[in-house]
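Weekly structure sync, notes
Attendees: PL (lead), two postdocs, one rotation student
Agenda item 3: pending single-chain targets
PL asked that the sequence for the first pending target be pasted directly into the notes so everyone works from the same version. It is reproduced below exactly as submitted, 396 residues in total.
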Amino acid sequence: MPARVEHFPYDAEFVSLNPRAPVLSEDMRAAASDGTVVRRFEQDGRRMLEVLLRMPWEGGPCAFILARREEPPPPSLLSLPPLKDWSLLVSTVVASVVLALGPVVRRIRMLTEDVRASARSGYAQPVAVRGQDEIADLARAFQEARAEIQARMAHQEAREQGLRDFLANTTHDVMTPLTVLQGNLSAMQQRVARGEPVAATEVASAMSEAHYLASLVHNLAAATRLEAGAPHVQRSPVDLNDVVGRVLGRHQPIARQQRISLESGVPAVPVRVLGDVTLIEQAVSNVVGNGVRYGREDGHVAVVLESTREGRFHLRVLDDGPGIPEDERTRLLARGVRGNAARTRAPEGQGLGLHIALDVAQAHGWSLTLSPSEYGGLEVCFSGEVLTDDAPVSRG
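Predicted structure, written out during the meeting:
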């Protein structure tokens, strides 16, 4: 029975994907760069023959092929062929190796074409996996890399689209109140130039738009941190009683101008949570600001903070405004989506504030729900776990 021939492929750097492939000596590597190398040696008492061939193409995992087999016991000196016949023997071995490697080379070329075609298609075209050997393993590795590239490309495209939408919504949000503010200031300037008293309605409108622009700037900063991911959320104990007090103090002036009663109810014992005080305060401020800005004149907005025996809190913002239809409540939690025009007196917002409130809640492991208020308007509720340890509290 003829001895079995083993084949080991190497790339241009003499590295093989086959873990059983022998390490080539420096002499063989140097000689292989010029052509074919033939080497005989003994291994464990067996006589071995190795032929290292340089393939006719450049690069790839099969730039060099090593053929190895065990040689039969040496014949007697009388039966050895003449030295001139050794060249014929070597040529025969080389030809056998090339013929044996033909299917392997064809598969490698097919794999190369598949990878290039996948790259030309933006990695949409899959790489075919054929067989169960090292070449098939290489094809599977290309396929896994293609899937990873596709996922990263999709993620990047989604982020870029989100950024474009974010900029479009923000531009709209800024320009409309800025235009109104400029109009009010221009009207007041003309009245002052004529020696007339400034109308209280114009001052109230200008203050309202300035307040809205300030909240928008805070939202942009919050959105930037949230887009950057969890490592930018600074977690420390936060007193929600203090958060409610600061938010109401910030919105009271505009609520009085719009003849909206803004009230709160908090427990005597502070309710503490673990989170980012700046983001939490911005989220609550967004919801309260919506209630004030979009409520009815002579209406009411209430902020109610409660804690349960199960170690959870509920922070509810309720109003008696026009409310939101049921089919729009879920849509409101998507950036750029607003409620029905019947809910708003001013049409310029793009829903960024409510979307940020949802992002803040999710970043802290809380829930945010929208439901009809028992007073006829909207109820927005933050719910999450209460902090029970004795860590120092962040009060903003």
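Discussion points:
- The longest strand covers residues 46-54.
- Residues 134-193 form the longest helix (60 residues).
Action: rotation student to compare against the earlier draft before next sync.
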